[in-house]
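Dear U.,

Please find below the material for section 3 of the report. The protein was modelled together with pyridoxal-5'-phosphate; I have listed the sequence and SMILES used, followed by the predicted complex structure.
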Amino acid sequence: MTIKENLNSIQKIIDDTAKKFGRVGKDVHLVAVSKKQPVEALKAMLSCGHRLYGENRVQEAIEHWKELRPHYPDLKLHLIGPLQTNKIKEAVALFDVIETIDRPKLASALAHEMKKQDKNLPCFIQVNTGEEDQKAGVHPQALPEFLKFCQSEGLNIVGLMCIPPVAEPPALHFAFLQKLAKENGLKELSMGMSSDFEKAIPLGATYIRVGTALFGARD
Ligand SMILES: *Cc1c(COP(=O)(O)O)cnc(C)c1O
């Protein structure tokens, strides 16, 4: 399958699934996860007209997009991986949305850097719905207080993001994230990847993050 065929088939699944559950396909935004893909693959996807991308490392994102970006003024880049505080300046300069806010120190430093760069990027709080030790994200019970903190720092928190534990049914975690967003008055939900995005759509995903199903296997 070519990248164009993959894109068309994923978009059709999004549209059909949304429709089946009383939603509109265009409310489910497809974040094409371009990490570890060659630049030719990015160019192929760009030539299909796709403009929304996700990267999980700041340095790689700079290498991928620094030269391409000026040619595509409508491009949007989401940071979907962990952000170290020493990369904040570059992240704020490059990304349009930060999906992985998960600790007070990061929230404060980001808010400070955004003011400096005169930006107020939309942000997501990453929630560790499975409470896994090795995984990033705030624990669900800490969310309300952390959200208040982020808002008091001036961050524009628009929604929640999660990566479910591999060994558990993802739908449980998607339903939980949907509930948390509702309870906390947040609109956007970033959830669902290549293997499970169809399950995230009925549960309210507004952003799905799809890599291998679009681009093929990574290096
Ligand atoms: C890599 C990655 C994805 C995409 O994973 P696929 O299984 O290739 O679709 C989605 N979200 C995050 C946070 C990732 O790191």
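For the text of the report, you could mention the following: The mean pLDDT is 97.

Regards,
Y.
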